[in-house]
Automatic annotation (TrEMBL):
Keywords: Isomerase. Belongs to the 4-oxalocrotonate tautomerase family. InterPro entries: 4-OT-like_dom (IPR004370), Tautomerase/MIF_sf (IPR014347). The lineage of its organism: Bacteria, Pseudomonadati, Pseudomonadota, Alphaproteobacteria, Hyphomicrobiales. It comes from Mesorhizobium neociceri. GO terms for molecular function: isomerase activity. Residues 2-66 form the 4-oxalocrotonate tautomerase-like domain. It comes from the Bacteria. This is 4-oxalocrotonate tautomerase family protein. SUPFAM superfamilies: Tautomerase/MIF (SSF55331). Pfam families: Tautomerase.
C-alpha cells in the first residue's frame, strides 16, 4: 500500500490565490495514483495520496525564511 505525500506552498500559483484548488488537488491525486499504477503496478484502490499545504512562514529557502530570501533576491543580494 503506497502512501504518497505531496507538499505544496499555500501561496497558490496565480496572483491573488492563497491555496491549491479542489480541482487541482483532485488532478494531483489522480495523476500520482495513475503513475504508481503504470510504473509499479499498484492498484488505484491501494494507493493513498496526502496533500499538505505549507504556510509561507513554515518554510525556508537558501538558509533564510522565504520572505527574507525573496527580499534579498529582489534587492540583488542573494
Amino acid at each position: 500500500m503506497p502512501i504518497v505525500t505531496i507538499q505544496v506552498t499555500r501561496e497558490g500559483s496565480a496572483p491573488g490565490r492563497d491555496s491549491v484548488t479542489t480541482e487541482e488537488k483532485a488532478a494531483l491525486i489522480a495523476g500520482v495514483s495513475q503513475l504508481l499504477l503504470d510504473v509499479l503496478h499498484k492498484p488505484l484502490e491501494a494507493t493513498f495520496v496526502v496533500i499538505e499545504e505549507v504556510e509561507l512562514e513554515n518554510w525556508g529557502w537558501g538558509g533564510l525564511p522565504v520572505p527574507e530570501y525573496r527580499r534579498r533576491r529582489a534587492a540583488g543580494n542573494s
